[in-house]
Each structure stands twice: as structure tokens, then as C-alpha cells.
């Protein structure tokens, strides 16, 4: 931004009110943008909902009412006509970890997340709509009548900023659960949740769903602020996406009455079976699919492939196939749509130094591309990943040859989120084994970034965890054994 250009303002939204006073200057991640935002300390007392009975207005809404609201919001989240989204999208060019074409593509797709059918499918397959609509009865074998219902909660959401869609997902989850959300906007995406909240205010300023959403930015790790807000009298749930340091920081505030739902950092991998090399066509198909899993979001997502285990074999012929396949992957990656992947904004210089160093060691590695910071495919000539495998990023992947699929298991652990698999047939061998080692999601190669919110995430069901599951037991001595009717025992 020019020093003569007024700094952009990221207002604070507190339950239907847009706040633009007590502004302070802050910087987005990466240092490309400075903006103004209200000093969160000045508004701390207003951020918590306070009396939990204020959630009661949400229970006057039916699930169909919530779907009506979501559909209406989706119609307004059209990038072509929504000035809040347009402004947020352009500002996000400076803060997002990905390039402008990918940011724009994501903003264009936000409205699709609000379809009636998509929300219904996701909620029904996880929580179950009837548990949100009322008490669900069941008669137990001892005669007790049990009723169960899922209630909303007062929640803080520390949202990740590597994909704008995560902010909208958080808002949708909050709506269907009838919860009250405070969204802490991330420094690499401080504008998306705010643009959606302002659209909600324009659409229905007094609607309960509008008035149970707050969006604020404060610098993570501000202990003076967080120690006052992160208290069980204010919050019941903290839903945190983020890296290792931020997760460790949040855990210091967890205490009885305040639950942490952790969507913490993960790594993902791919498995390429022997059948891939049956023909030129299958090699090309697998290469395109793998390129998509590597290049999506420029490898900024936990779902993206980094180390790829290829059952080419480790003999001379196997390595020849591996290296040819690596070239196909690299070429396919360069041809991906620019709304999915591009040359990175900034190729990590430390990573580039590691990759360039491998070029000098063609006995152990073949490096395809990467000289211009566009991304690279590293083909190990031994059945071992590179020493810097955990730092692969910016469309840089490592293909590792193996003779047997059993060799892959040693590389799978609790940090392994998504495993892309090709050909599809080898999933039968893998899908009951990979979870034992820690893998959390198994997907057809090429679909790693096609997350389905109707599915579990990180081996939990976040939507279920975000609700409060309450039981009501109905029993009498006529129908159920009574504790006070137990026999006495003479010793």
C-alpha cells in the first residue's frame, strides 16, 4: 500500500453491530498489508455473550428456518455483486498464503456451501437433525425412558487462514447448532469472516443467527486479553485450528467447564500402487491426480500430498519408471487450473536451498524443476524420504520408491491426516490397516482437497463435539429398578 493511501479498516462485528472506533494499526501475516482494526481490549467486556439464557432466541427457530436463512445468505454471497466480498477478496491478495487467482476462485465458490441440500446432508450424516430439533426418546432394557438432545454452546473459534472457506464453514456449523460464536480472525485471512458477517447484517440485522455471530481480530498470544476472555463463565468450547505453537498456547487456558476441540496441524501422503505402471495411460492419469493433490492450495493445506510412496520397485527398472513418473507429475502440476494451483507467491528460500543441494547428488536423488521457484518433484533413488520431508511446501513433493506396500506403514503415524491412493483397487488392502497406524482419511488420489464436511475430520466429528449432548432420564420404581430399593447385606 502506498504511504499516501488510507489504510484499510477491518471493523469488529459484535452480534449484529459493526464497530469501527478505537482503531489500532496491525499487520497481516507476511508483512504485505497493514490495516486498522478496533482495539479488542476496548471491547472485551462486550465480546462474551454473558447470560447463556440469551441463546434462547435461537430455539424459536426450526431447522427449516435455519436453512431458509442459509439459502438467502448464499444468494447474497455472490462475488460479482457483493461489495463486502469484493473488498475482502482484494485485500486478501496481500495476506493470503496463496496467489490472487486461487483467492478469487475460493471466494467465487463460497455461495455453493450454503445450499439447502449440502447443509442437510452434512448435518444429517453427523449430528442427526432430529437431535437438534428436539428430544429424541429411547426406551432402555431396564425400562428407563431416555431422551437426548444436542444443544448449542458459547464458543470461540480460532480459525485457520489457509482457505477462506473455513470461515464460512465455521459460521454454518454455528448456525445449525444454534450456538453463539466469537470468531478470532487469523492474520493471514482477517477479512473473510468479517465480509460474511457484514452481509448477514445487511440481510437480516435483527435475526437471531445474525445476532449470535461476532468477528474480531487480535494478535494471537496476547495473554492479557486472552486470560480474561478464555474463561468458562464466558465460553464453553474453544475450536482451534492452527500450528503447534498456537495449540500449545491455547491449552494453558483449558480448565473444567472449558473444552478444547483441536483441529491441529497434520501431514498427508500418497500411495501409488504397482498397477499404476500397467500402461502409459494409467501413469498419466495417476500423475495428473497426484499433481492435483500436491498443487492444491499450493500445498498450504494439511490435506496436500508431500511424501509419495511409489510401488515402482527399487531395482534399475523400477527407478527408471519412478523418474519417468516424476516428470509426468511435474508437467501435470504446471498445467493445473490457476484457481487450484500456481507458481507460489514466495518459494521458501530455505527449502529451495535444500532442493538445490540435492541436484548435486544425482546418485541418490533426481530433482525435476524448482530452479525458478515454481515447485519441484524430488525422486529419491533409495527407499527413504529426504531429510527435510516435514518441511516440504510450495508445490515440492518427494517420490519414494518401495517394493511392497507394507513398507509404507512405518511412515504413517498420528500426524498423518489424508492418504491419497491409486489405483482404487488397492484400498481394499489398505483401508483397514492404515488407521491402525494413525491415518485419519483415505481418499481416491486427486481428491485430497475435495473435503466433504459430511465426513469426519481429523478422526473426530467436529460438529458433534461442538454441541452439548444432554440427556433426560425418566424412571419410576414401577418401570425401572430403584437405587433405594437395593437389598441390605449382613456381613
TrEMBL record:
| Source superkingdom | Bacteria
InterPro entries, A to Z: Ald_DH/histidinol_DH, CoA_reduct_LuxC
Q: Which is a GO BP term held by this UniProt record?
A: bioluminescence
Q: Which Pfam families match?
A: LuxC (PF05893)
Which controlled-vocabulary keywords does the entry list? NADP
One MF term in the entry's GO annotations? acyl-CoA dehydrogenase activity
Q: How is this protein named in the record?
A: Long-chain-fatty-acyl-CoA reductase
List the source organism.
Cupriavidus yeoncheonensis
